[in-house]
Write a structure and sequence with these properties.
Layout lengths: L9 E5 L7 H9 L4 E5 L12 E6 L2 H11 L4 E2 L2 E2 L1 E4 L5 H5 L12 E6 L7 H9 L9 E4 L6 E7 L2 H11 L3 E2 L2 E2 L1 E4 L14 H12 L5
Antiparallel strand pairs: 1-3, 1-6, 2-3, 4-5, 7-9, 7-12, 8-9, 10-11
Subcellular location: Nucleus
GO biological process, one term: positive regulation of mRNA splicing, via spliceosome
Organism: Saccharomyces pastorianus
C-alpha cells in the first residue's frame, strides 16, 4: 500500500463491513467534516473491500472532531466502526515492516523500566523476541533523573505482548528487577495506555490483511 499523507489530519477507520462502498463511506464522513481524500483498499484477488480505511481531512482539528463523533457510535451492517488517530510516533518502527508512508499502524508498545546498565539494545531485542515478533529495534533511554534506564519495545501482535508482560514483569534481568507494562499513549487523554479493546481489534485487522508484514 503506497499512501503518502499528513498523519495528523488522518484517521484510521476499522471494523468496516466489506459491503460498504467507498461512496457510502464518503457520504457518511462528509456529514461531519470536509474530506481531502480516502484510501479504502480492496483485496487484489477477490476485489472486495478489506474492512479498513484511511480518511484524510483538511486539519488536525477536523480529524479529532471526527474521532470524537464517530468512534464507537456508528453501526454499519451491525458492525460498530472504530475510528482512531493516525500518528507518526511509530513511523520508524513501522517503516521496515510495511509500505505505508508516514502511517503508524496499530502495534503494541511496551514500556520497560529499571534496566541494568549492562543491557544493550541487541540483548534487549533477544530477550523480547523470545515471546514473539518485535517491530524494529527497542528504543533505550534514561528518564530525566538520568539514573533510571528504560526502553520502549514494539510487538507486532498484542497477544504476544501480553505474554511478554506476564513473563517478564517484576523479574530479575541481569540482577536488576524490571517492570514491563503497556506504554502510555503520546496523545492519550486521561493517561490511557496501549492495549485497549479498540487497539486490539485494529491490530487483529492489520495482521489479518497483512498490513504489518
Amino acid at each position: 500500500m503506497n499512501y503518502s499523507t499528513d498523519s495528523s489530519n488522518t484517521v484510521y477507520v476499522g471494523n468496516i463491513d466489506p459491503r460498504i462502498t467507498r461512496d457510502q463511506l464518503y457520504e457518511l464522513f462528509i456529514q461531519i467534516n470536509p474530506i481531502l481524500r480516502i484510501k479504502y483498499p480492496k483485496d487484489k484477488v477477490l476485489q472486495t473491500y478489506q474492512g479498513y480505511a484511511f480518511i484524510e481531512f483538511h486539519s488536525k482539528e477536523d480529524a479529532q472532531y471526527v474521532i470524537q463523533i464517530m468512534n464507537n457510535t456508528v453501526k454499519l451492517y451491525d458492525r460498530l466502526i472504530k475510528v482512531r488517530q493516525v500518528t507518526s510516533s511509530l513511523g520508524a518502527a513501522n517503516s521496515s515492516s510495511n509500505n505505508s508512508k508516514g502511517i503508524s499502524l496499530p502495534i503494541a508498545k511496551l514500556f520497560v523500566k529499571n534496566l541494568a546498565d549492562s543491557i544493550d539494545i541487541e540483548q534487549l531485542g533477544k530477550i523480547f523476541n523470545k515471546f514473539g515478533k518485535t517491530v524494529n529495534k527497542p528504543e533505550v533511554f534514561h528518564l530525566s533523573t538520568g539514573n533510571l534506564k528504560c526502553a520502549y519495545v514494539y510487538f507486532e501482535d498484542f497477544e504476544k505482548a501480553d505474554v511478554a508482560i506476564k513473563s517478564l514483569n517484576n523479574q530479575l534481568v541481569a540482577n536488576s528487577r524490571i517492570t514491563v507494562d503497556y506504554a502510555f499513549k503520546e496523545n492519550g487523554k486521561g493517561n490511557t495506555k496501549y492495549g485497549d479493546e479498540v487497539d486490539r481489534l485494529l491490530n487483529k485487522e492489520a495482521l489479518k490483511h497483512g498490513m504489518l508484514k
